[in-house]
Specification:
The structure is a homodimer of 323-residue chains. Chain A is α/β, with parallel strands linked by helices. Chain A has 14 helices and 10 strands. Chain A has 2 domains: 219 residues, Rossmann fold (3-Layer(aba) Sandwich), CATH 3.40.50.1100; 91 residues, 3-Layer(aba) Sandwich (Rossmann fold), CATH 3.40.50.1100. In chain A, helix 5 runs parallel beside helix 6 and helix 9 runs parallel beside helix 11. The first copy, chain A, starts with a helix and ends with a helix.
């Protein structure tokens, strides 16, 4: 079974009251610079500052009353954990997030602020996902995976549905929609929604070059992994291997797959700061980076991009913009 | 003669096609922190990154064809000059901006990028406004004042009209609308529009404490100036004296006037970075600062604020967020 349009439509109706309908803007400078029409979705102003809130809310609202009463558990180093914690708070569900010991203190504080219980693990010696999964099984609680889950994928797909509606209201039709990718849940959900609502729009996956399993999967026709990945500044878009559910959703639906390097991602972050007055994390800026680096074919005249997350350490952001 | 609602309505219809309808968002964290409902208008994503584009476009579209052919001239150190240059470019009007020698290079570059001619002056030895005014008279060109001009005030007033409409569409009614103030054009225009469209909304002026002539004018009943002002980080909201046209528009219409200090403005800038993922300049953050510092009466349950500009030097922004 894989995610179908009907799943996304049902989830969209269910979670809409809980979401920020994030704005879509245009920038005269970006259009002039790229020679295209670029629609920019500010998912950075979503609750908890990232699209991950959509998937978390989709998963949690889809649980049975008994499951909601039992509570949920997740493993995360950042955006997913913050999203699960805040979605749980809003729904009155108890949440535990397993976090690595080296998770930035500010992110742990945000999860606690949303009322989540925090459990720490040593990610160099332990498998945090396994710890969370087995604890969930032991305690009869639902485990919320960041991407390899059909409810989560349907939630992420609501972004494309919302953006297609917003583009139409602006009188625009996207030739290409660029989706920041890692575990494949976001791009998979967006590919399913787009195929239904705007079949002439090509959905493109955008990864960082060091973690480009989706690009390699599209090239090889096999489900590739990132087990040999090297470090990248794009911490939010790193997955050991795209999920099976996401892979099923995106594999025959993408127009293409792109990877941008760290320098391109940082240049895009700096552009967003200076020209769009927006805070974007490196992994949230890869779609913008792909457009700025002119990596799309010329026939893609109108391009949609998603600034999908803005949770970035202040010290690192400061050093990047001041370069 | 002073600015009337009919002027703002006419200007709004005229400039709407040229503007970004800037989004209004809410933040669950900000509401929880302040115990209020806060509507946040992202004027930072307006063309040229500030509300000044509204006034510039209002002024330039209101010129006769002969005046448009003759071109315009402005004096500015930043947001106003960028706004005039870009509005002129879009309308095919020649523009000259007189800038002080110590204007940040990036702002001069932005004005040049919009096609403006740049003339430099030494603001410690010369009066830049007088240079621009007399050159305009000599060359038969329109001088575009940053705030003491009824067309400009009407343009700035379109922000309040747009925000009131957006609040209604969200099912909200603002008890208070906080407007970042200096020369009085923005708050004057917003006060006139609000009195017409939403008379139960109190319009508040927000200045920085070092440049608080509007607050002192409201207290004394006289048209006060800032001639004795001391330095402040809020460079975008500093005027030697509020304009006569703005004073006429705001003096009997404000619910109150607030001033925030530099530390409060920087704390608001940092909050916007961390929690709203938005880049705001200190002078653009004073309304947010007033709400964060709880400077509004308790009966103001639903408060509108404007993040009115996001043009900030990268090095300074970096130092502020990393504090």
């Amino acid at each position: 079974m894989s995610v179908a349009w009907a799943d996304i439509a049902a989830v969209r109706a269910r979670i809409a009251p809980h979401l920020v309908e994030t704005p879509v803007i245009r920038s005269a400078n970006l259009d002039a610079l790229t020679g295209r029409r670029v629609l920019i979705k500010l998912e950075t102003v979503q609750h908890t500052g990232a699209f991950k809130f959509r998937g978390a809310m989709a998963k949690l609202t889809g649980l049975s009353p008994e499951q909601q009463l039992a509570g949920v558990i997740a493993y995360s180093t950042g955006n997913h954990g913050m999203a699960v914690a805040e979605a749980a708070r809003r729904l009155g569900i108890a949440a535990t997030v397993v976090v690595p010991l080296d998770t930035p203190a500010v992110k742990v504080a945000r999860m606690r602020e949303s009322g989540a219980e925090i459990a720490q693990c040593d990610r160099f010696k332990e498998n945090g996902e396994e710890i969370a999964r087995s604890r969930a099984a032991r305690e009869g609680r639902a485990f919320v995976h960041p991407f390899d889950d059909e409810a989560v994928i349907a939630g992420q797909g609501t972004l494309a549905a919302e953006m297609i509606d917003q583009a139409r209201a602006m009188g625009e039709s996207m030739d290409a929609l660029l989706v920041n990718s890692a575990g494949g849940g976001f791009v998979g959900g967006c590919a399913v929604a787009t195929a239904q609502l705007s079949p002439t729009t090509g959905v493109w996956s955008v990864e960082c070059t060091a973690w480009d399993a989706i690009r390699r999967s599209i090239a090889s026709g096999r489900h590739e992994d990132n087990l040999a990945a090297t470090p990248s500044v794009c911490d939010a878009i790193q997955a050991r291997k795209p999920g099976a559910a996401g892979y099923a959703a995106f594999k025959d639906r993408l127009a293409g797959a792109i990877a941008v390097n760290d320098a391109q991602a940082i240049a895009a972050l700096r552009y967003a700061f200076e020209r769009l007055r927006l805070v974007v994390e490196p992994g949230g800026a890869v779609g913008l980076a792909a457009v700025l680096a002119n990596m799309l074919p010329p026939e893609a005249r109108t391009i949609g991009i998603v600034l999908c997350g803005g949770n970035v350490d202040a010290e690192r952001f400061a050093s990047w913009i001041a370069q």
